[in-house]
Amino acid sequence: MSAGISLFAEWQRRISAAADNAGKLDAFREAALDVGRRIGDGFDHVEAVDRLKGMALNHSWFGIGEPDIEAMIGDGLERAKREDAPSVFDDMEERWERDDQQRARKNGKPPDDKAGDKAPLAGLGEWDAGDDADLPPPRGWLLGNSFCRKFISSLLGDGGTGKTAARTLQALALATGRNLTGEHVFERTRVLLISLEDDHAELRRRVLAARLHHKIELSEVNGWLFLSAPGITAGKLMTINSKSGGLVVGELAANIEAVIVKRQIGLVILDPFIKAHGVPENANAEMDAVAQMLTDIATRHNIGLDLPHHISKGAPDPGNANRGRGASATKDAGRLVFTLSPMSEDEAERYSIPPDDRRDYVRMDRAKLNIARTAGPAAWFKLISVRLGNATATYPNGDDVQTVEPWNPPQTWDRVDGVYIDSILTKIDHGLEDGTLYTHSPRATERAAWRVVCEHGPGGKSEAQARDIINTWVRTGLLVEVKYDNKVTRKPAMGLRVDREKWEEIRRDTTAKGLRV
Questions:
Q1: What is the CATH number of domain 141-406?
Q2: Residue 445 belongs to what H/E stretch?
Q3: How many CB atoms lie within 10 A of CB 19?
Q4: For a surface tag, which of 91, 433, 505, 511 has the fewest beta carbons within 10 Å of its beta carbon?
Q5: What is the three-class DSSP state of 176?
Q6: Which of 186, 143, 140 is nearest to 167 (CA)?
C-alpha cells in the first residue's frame, strides 16, 4: 500500500471500527506515529497534521476538543522522529489481513487473498424497492415550512431588513410552542440560537424585546431556548491552511454538537452564516465541504439547522434564492430557503402605507423549497420598536430594540359587500353631472372610475386597490365599455356602463360571491 490517500483511508477505517472511544484513541495514536514515520514519502509535515486533525474532527470520534487532538498528533510525530523502528503500519498489515480473512469466514464468504492490499468497500446500502412495503415516516417538520429536522434552511436578506428579529421570533415560537409568527408549530422544540455577529448583551436585548412585545414569560423559555454569543473563541467550522491551501476543520462544529447532545436541541440557528467559517464564500468546492459538514450534523443529530445569510448587492428580488451571496453550493445545500425584503414603493401605494413608513414592513417569500410546495403567498411582518425599560442614570431612556410581529396587508376586496357594490355601480352607471361617463383608462383624471370606489366604497382603499376592483369588473363583464355622444366635447367617446343582467345577479346575492374572479 502506498503512502497518502490510501494510508489515511485505511487508518480511518481501522479507527472507525474500534469498539469504543478508548480503542479509537489508541488506534489514532498509532496512526499519528505511523504517519510521522512516513513524512517525506509523498506528503510533508503540514499536510500530515492537517489530514490527521481533519480525519479526527470531521468524524467526531473521540468526544474531545481540537487542542487535545493536536497534542496527540504532536506526540505521535515527535515519537516517530526519536524512534528508529519499522512503521507500525507495516507491522500491522499482516494482522489486519488476518482479521479480514477471519471476518470473511465468519460471515460465510470466501477469503480474499488480497484483503490486506486495500480497504474493503463500504457498500451503498441499497435495498429492493419491491420489498419496501412499509410506509416511510413523515418528515420532521418543526415550524410551518421554515424548519425541518435533518434539513438545512436559510433566510436571505440585506442587512437591516429584520432577519435576526424574524428568526428570533420563530425561535421563540418553537421554544414556547406558541403560534407567534402565523406558522403552525408541529412540536415544541429546544432551540439553540447562536449569534456570531452580536455579543451576549445585544443578543439578550433582542430576545428581551421579543419577549416583552409578545408577552412571553421567562418560565415559558426556561429549558427550551438556549442562547450563545461565543465570538471568536468558539472557532470556525472550517478554515484554509495558509501554507498548503487545504481545508482545516475548526472547533465550532464540535462545540455545537456538544451543546446539541447536552441540551437535547432540535433546531440550531447559526446567525449569520458568513461568520461561521473562514472559507472564501465564492469558492464552490470549499463551500460545498462546509455545507456537507452542516448537513452531516443535521442528519447525525436529527435536528433542523438554519443559516441566515446576506444577499448580493442589487435591488430586492423577493423569492429569488440566487440572490444569496457567494458560491452556489451554499444555496444548493439549503432545502428550505426564504427571502426577506422590505416593502416596495408600489406595494406601499397598494396598501396605503405612507412612503416614509414602508421600510417598517417586510415580506418573507418562499425562494427554494425542495421538500415542500414553493408556490404560496408572502408572509408579512411589521418591525416594531420595543422600549426595554433598562434605563440608568447615564442612559435615562434605556434601549429601544427591534422585534417583529405578523402583519396582514389590507385585502382589495375586504368589506366590499353588496351595499357598497350597489352604491358604486349606481354612481358609475349614472355618470358625472355633466353627462359624461366614467372610464377605466389609466390616463383618466376626473372621469376615472376608481375614484368612485374610494368615494362610495368602504374606507381605506388605495388607488391601486380601487383600480384593481374596477379592472376586475371590466374583465368579468359587469362593467362594459360603450360608445356615447359626449355633450361636453360634442364628440363620440367611450365610457363605462353596468351590465343590467349581471347587476341584478349582484343585487340578489348581497355577499357579492363570485365577483372577484
A1: 3.40.50.300
A2: none
A3: 7
A4: 433
A5: helix
A6: 143
